[in-house]
Amino acid sequence: MDSQQFREAAKAAIDDIAKYYDNISDHRVVADVEPGYLRPLLPASAPLEGESWDSIQADIQSKILPGITHWQAPGFMAFFPCSSSYPAAIAEMYSNTFNGAHFNWICSPAVTELETIVMDWLAQALGLPECFLSGGPTHGGGVLHGSASEAILTVMVAARDKYINEATAHLPEGEEKEEEMWRLRSKLVALGSEGTHSSTKKAAQVLGVRFATVPISEKEGFTMTGEALATKLDELKAKGLEPFYLTATLGTTDVCAVDDFEGISRTLAPRVGKPGEIWVHVDAAYAGAALLLDENKPLAKPIANFHSFNLNPHKWMLTTFDCSAVWVRQRGHLINALSIKPHYLRNQYSDNELVTDYRDWQIPLGRRFRSLKLWFVLRAYGIRGLQAHIQSGITLGESLEAKLVTRPDLFIIFTKAHFGLVTFRVSGDSEEKINSRSQKLYDAINASGQFYLTSTVVKDHFAIRVCTGVATVREETIQKLFDLLVETTEGQLKLE
Amino acid sequence: MDSQQFREAAKAAIDDIAKYYDNISDHRVVADVEPGYLRPLLPASAPLEGESWDSIQADIQSKILPGITHWQAPGFMAFFPCSSSYPAAIAEMYSNTFNGAHFNWICSPAVTELETIVMDWLAQALGLPECFLSGGPTHGGGVLHGSASEAILTVMVAARDKYINEATAHLPEGEEKEEEMWRLRSKLVALGSEGTHSSTKKAAQVLGVRFATVPISEKEGFTMTGEALATKLDELKAKGLEPFYLTATLGTTDVCAVDDFEGISRTLAPRVGKPGEIWVHVDAAYAGAALLLDENKPLAKPIANFHSFNLNPHKWMLTTFDCSAVWVRQRGHLINALSIKPHYLRNQYSDNELVTDYRDWQIPLGRRFRSLKLWFVLRAYGIRGLQAHIQSGITLGESLEAKLVTRPDLFIIFTKAHFGLVTFRVSGDSEEKINSRSQKLYDAINASGQFYLTSTVVKDHFAIRVCTGVATVREETIQKLFDLLVETTEGQLKLE
Predict the structure, then answer these.
(1) What cellular-component terms does GO give this entry (chains A, B) (predicted)?
(2) Domain segments of chain B: what residues?
(3) Quick one: which of B281, B341, B435, B485 is 20 to 30 A from A75 by CA?
C-alpha cells in the first residue's frame, strides 16, 4: 500500500468509523455469536500473497462486527464504561504515526515531556495534593500505564522493596541481612478490603506474597474503615506476618463505595516515616474522574497521606483504552525498584540525570505515546466539557434511582446512585426470593440485547449493577431501561 | 466534535500522516531539543473551555514534531526497529473504534477469537512446533501482550508456580508444605546469559527472585551453550539454590547471537517432566521474525523442547507498537498462575469453559484489540511480502558488512551481519585505542543527525551496532552511511 492508497483507504475507514458512531444505538449491545463463530469464516492459514485492501476492509463488516460488543452504545451499562471520543481517536492516529518504543527520553523527547506536563495538568484538575506533581515538594509525579492492574502491580513492587530495605536498614551488609530480607519476604502481606478490585489480589499472586482482606459491612456502606483495618493488622501481626501494602478504593467495583481515607490515615499514622510503614495506594480507576467536579474535591485531600493514586482516563474520561494515570508521592521508590541500566539503554541525557526515563516507572521497557490522547481530550473538551460529561453520568444514575424507588413493589435499591452507579434488587419476602428474582431479571434483560448490565454478589446479596457513565446515555435511555425493567419484572412475577 | 467535524479533522490528519511518511527522510533522525523544551511552550494547566480543533492540530507540527525521534526514518539504525505500516495504521483506527476493555470473551468475542486464529496463523508461518498451536497436542496457544518485558514476566510467574507446586506435590496440605513453599521461594533463581536482554533481569527483580547469568564467550560467538549452562546450574545447586527458569535468546540485543538450543535441551533433558524441571522461554523479540524465511525454519525445531516463545511483530514485522506475540506449550500453567474470578467477571460462557478468557494469560485485566493489526498486516503483505521485507533487512546488513571489510585500515567487523544487525569497531593497534576511536566515531555519527546508531560493550569491547531492519532503509542509505563512516573516521585519524 503506497501513500496514495493509504489516503484513500484510511479516508474510507474514517467514513466507516463515523457511520459506526452515528448508528451506535442500532446495534444489539452484546455480540450475539456462539463460541467459535469466527474460525469457520477464516482460512486455516495466512495468505501467501498479499490480498486486496477491499477484501480486507470488507471483512470488518461481515466477520468482525458481528462479534463486537458495543462498549460505546447507550445500552452498555455493564462493568464500568470504557469510553472513547473523536479527539482521542485522532490523537491515536498521530501517536501511531510517531510509532516507536520510546523507552528513553531521547527516543522521542516529546513523548516523555508531554506526559509529565499532562499528568501535572490532570493532577491539578483533579485537585490531587501537591505532593503528586512532578515539581512538588516530595519529588513525586505521574506516569501513564496501560491498566490499573499494571499500576497496582508496579506500586506494589516499589512498596515491597521500600518496606524490606527500611526494615533491614539497621543491619550491616552481609549474610545476616540477606537472610533477614528473605525471611521478611516470606512474611509479607498485601491488603485490600472485600470490595477491592481483584487486580490487587492478582498483583499479590504475581509477586508471590500473601493477600488479606479487611472485612466491610453493609452498615458502613461497604467502605473499609480505619477500625476494621486496625483489627486486621493486629491479627496479621499476631501471626508474625508483615503487612506492607494496602489498596484503598475510591469507587469500588461492586457498589462504588469510597473507603474511609481519614480513618485509614489515622490507623496508619503511628508507622508513617518509620520502618514498617505501610504503603497505601488509592485505586480510583473509575470514580477518580469525578474529582473533576468541585463538589468532590474534598475527597482528594486526605490522599496526601498516601503513597500513590491511579485513575483510568480510559474509563470515564473519554480517552481511548488503554490509558491508566498513576501518580506517586516519591518517584525515587519506583526508580529504585525498577531501574536497570544495560549499556544499550544508556545515553548522555539519562546518565547526567537531566531527564525522566519513564521505563524506570513501569514494568515494560517500551512505551506508547499515550499522553497525546489525554492532551487532546483535555484541550478539546476543556475542564468544563469534561465536568459536564461526568455530571451527566451522575445525574442519569440518580434519575434511574428516582424511577426505581417509585416502584417499591418491584424494586429495592441496594446501594444508592453514586458516581453514576446504582445497584438494585427485585423485591421479595425472603432473601432467597430476592436473589432468585433478581438473577432472573438480570438474565432476561441481558438476553434482550437492548442493554448490557452486570451483577454482583455482596455478602450473599445478588444485586444488579447499572452504570450510567457511557457518553451516549441519555435520559430517554434511562426511561427505556426502566420501562423494560418494570415490564420484565411484572411479567416474571405474574408467572410465579 | 460531532461526527461531521470528525470526518473533516480525521481526513486532514490522514493527509498530514501520509505527508509525514512521504517526507520521512527529510527529518533529522534524532530530535534536536534540550531537556525541558516543551514545558515553556505549553500553558501551566489544562484549559477551562474546550479549544478549537485547528489550534490543537497545529500544535502537532509546531510543538510535538520537533521533539520526535523518527523511528520510521531510513537513518534510524539504533536499537532494533519499531516499524509501522499503512495497513497496521488503519487497523489501529478500527481497533480504537471498537474500543473496550475486552477482558472476557463476551466483552467482544471477535477480539478473543481473531487473536487465537491469528496467533495460529503466525505460529504456522514461523514454523513453530505444533505444541504452540491452540489446537495442538499439549493444549498450548498464543496470546498478544504489549511488550516482551510483560511476556517474560508473565511466563516467569507461571514457571515459578509450576516449579513450586511440583516440588511440593509430594507433601500433604498443611503447615509443613506451606513452610517448604516459602523456603523454596526464597531460593529461586531465574537465569539468562550475559547476552540476555535486561527484561529478564527486570522480571526477576519485579518478582523478587534471584537472577544469575550464564557466561558467554567471543569464541562461541556470544551464544549460551549447554555446557556453560550446566556449569552454572551445578554452581547454583551447590549453593542450595533452586534454578527454575531460563531465558534462551534467538537474536541477542548486543549482537543478534542465537543461543545453542540443542545444547541447552541436552543439558536440561534429565529434569524434563520431573519436579525440578526448568522452564525455558525463548526470547526472539526481534529476530524471531526471520523465522518467516524458509532457510531459518530449522532454528524453530528445537523450541519444541521449551515451554514458551515470544516475538514482537512491532519490531521487524510492520505491526504498530505495541504487539508482542507469546506462545506457550501448556496454557494451563498460565491460567493456574494468573486466573482470578470475582463475581463481576463471571458469565455463562466462561463458567462453562466454552471460551478463552485471555485475561488469565496476562497480567492486566483489560485488553486492546491488538490482533486486528496483525491480521491486516499478514493479509495485506501476505507471507511472501513479509518475507521480502525481512530479506531486505538481512541483505542490507550484509551489504554494509561487505563495504566495511573493504576498508580494514579503518574498520574491524566485531560480529558479522546476522538478521540485519552488524557490529563493528574502528581499527587500532590496541584495545584501548579501538575502544576510544569507536566511541568517538559513534558520537560523531549520532551528532550528525543523519543517522541514529546505538553502541554496546561486550566483554569490554565497545562496538557500534547498525540495525538495517527499518522498512525505509535502501541500498543507497547503506552507501550514504558507509561514506559518512569512512569520511568521519578518516577525519578523526588525521587529527590524532
Answers:
(1) cytoplasm
(2) 1-30+69-84+382-496, 99-368
(3) B341
Q: Is A109 on the interface with B (CB under 8 A)?
A: yes
A213 to chain B, any CB pair closer than 8 A? The answer is no
Q: Which long-range contacts (CB under 8 A, 24 or more apart) does B14-18 make?
A: B14/A6, B14/A7, B14/A10, B14/A11, B14/A14, B14/A93, B15/A7, B16/A94, B16/B57, B16/B60, B17/A6, B17/A10, B17/A93, B17/A94, B17/A97, B17/B89, B18/A3, B18/A4, B18/A6, B18/A7, B18/A10
Quick one: average pLDDT of B229-237?
98
In a mutagenesis test of the A interface, which of B22, B61, B69, B442 is the best target, namely the one with the most A β-carbons within 10 Å? B69
Whether this model's pTM surpasses 0.95: yes
Task: Output the nine-digit C-alpha cell for B433.
Answer: 585505542
Tell me, yes or no, if B449 comes closer than 8 A to chain A by beta carbon: no
How far away is chain A from the Cα of B223, in angstroms, using its nearest Cα?
18
Bridge-based pairing state of the strands A308-311 and B411-418: unpaired
**What tens digit of pLDDT does each residue of B121-136 get?**
999 999 999 999 999 9
Nearest one of A361, A347, A368 to A96, comparing CA atoms: A368
Q: How confident is the model over B105-133, as a mean pLDDT?
A: 97
> For A205-251, what is each residue's pLDDT tens digit?
999 999 999 999 999 999 999 999 999 999 999 999 999 999 999 99
The CATH number of domain B1-30+69-84+382-496, selected from 3.40.50.1220, 3.90.550.10, 3.90.1150.170, 3.40.50.300: 3.90.1150.170
CATH class name, domain A99-368? alpha beta
> What residues contact A295, with CB distance under 8 A and at least 6 apart?
none
pLDDT at residue A348, as a whole number: 81
